[in-house]
Amino acid sequence: MRAGTLSILLQECALVRVDVHFCGINFADILVCHGQYQKRPQLPFTPGVEFAGTVLETGTDVSTVKEGDRVIGISGFNGMAEECVVDHKALWQIPEGVPLREAAALPVSYGTAILALEHRARTQPGETVLVTAAAGATGLAVIDVATNILQAKVIAAAGSDEKCQLAMQRGAHSSVNYSQGSLKEAVRKLVGNGGVNVVIDTVGGDLFLEALRSLAWEGRIVVVGFAGGTIASVPANLLLLKNVSAMGLYLSRYWDQNFPLFSRGLSSAIQYCQQGRIQPHIGAVFKLEEVNDAFLHVTQRKSTGKVGAHLFCFPSTFLKLLPQDVSHSALHQREQHA
């Protein structure tokens, strides 16, 4: 579609055309290219859920942003391109002092972390939070928010010593390498029989069950993904015996069901980042033509920070957008794996 045609479409509407600079790589992008995501856009499509860039043009009904503004945005799989067109309510202005690259890491990972910790788990200062896949994008965001915003103590659980070390460097109070033995027993050695107050789980399967059994009286566990590939069944007797709560967080549903809450969560992340209270960890940056390498980096679990192990976001992998469009690559992957 030519720019002139876009300009005509933008007239008398609430759409905004954005020059995309960075686009976060999320596991959802990979799943949708394989035809395995719960939402299957019609072909042709371009992946890319979260992005940062500058406003090129606005519709006549738009008053929230203007040409030249730096913005971050949430798109329905169209952000991994030179430009994208989105509804104005899907954009948030980036304040001075926040780089575009770091801003692009905020929507999915930090939006998830803030809503999981604050809205769902109601985490209180001084409580102990256990987070699985702690070196992933969401895991590191949980550590950042829990430690630096909520003043909670974090136990980081990850699958290697290197990832545990990174989690400790990013603010965790202690760590557990769950590839070396029982998560429940390791947590018990750290906190005793009392258990942890909050669990944020992105892995699922047996690890979820061990984390559930690690909860304290009236503890809360929040399910945010199944990176391990297995969805566990919740033993209801465990909920009863300790009066614990098991709940989920599906971030994108808040867009439809409670947009003000969704928006407040992302606005808080932007504010915290501007204030220097949180700092997204960028694990890797890829050029746009290297998108397949970026996907492999995630699927092979080489990533830490923004490109890791959760259904909706990845630890530290970004694309620095160049003058190309990735849609053909995405379509090729989907055709090969359909």
Tell me the span between the first and last alpha carbons: 27 Å
Say how many strands there are. Answer: 13
Q: Please give the radius of gyration in angstroms.
A: 20 Å
Low-confidence stretches: 307-318, 320-338
3D shape: globular
Describe this structure in words.
It comes from Vicugna pacos. By secondary structure, this protein is of the alpha/beta class. It is built from 13 helices and 13 strands. The strands form two sheets. Strands 1, 2, 3, 4, 5, 12 and 13 form a seven-stranded mixed beta sheet that branches. β7 (153-158), α6 and β8 (174-177) form a beta-alpha-beta unit. α4 crosses α5, α4 crosses α11 (259-274) and α10 (251-257) crosses α11. It is globular. The two termini are 27 Å apart. Mean pLDDT is 86; it is low at 307-318 and 320-338.
For this entry, give a set of tags:
ADH-like_N; 338 residues; 22% strand; 13 strands; 7-stranded mixed β-sheet; 6-stranded parallel β-sheet; alpha/beta; Quinone oxidoreductase-like protein 2 isoform X3
Write a short abstract of this structure.
By secondary structure, the protein is α/β, with parallel strands linked by helices. It has helices at residues 3-10, 27-33, 100-103, 106-120, 137-148, 161-169, 183-191, 205-212, 236-242, 251-257, 259-274, 291-299, 327-337; strands at 15-24, 50-58, 70-74, 83-87, 91-93, 128-131, 153-158, 174-177, 196-201, 215-223, 245-248, 284-287, 317-320.
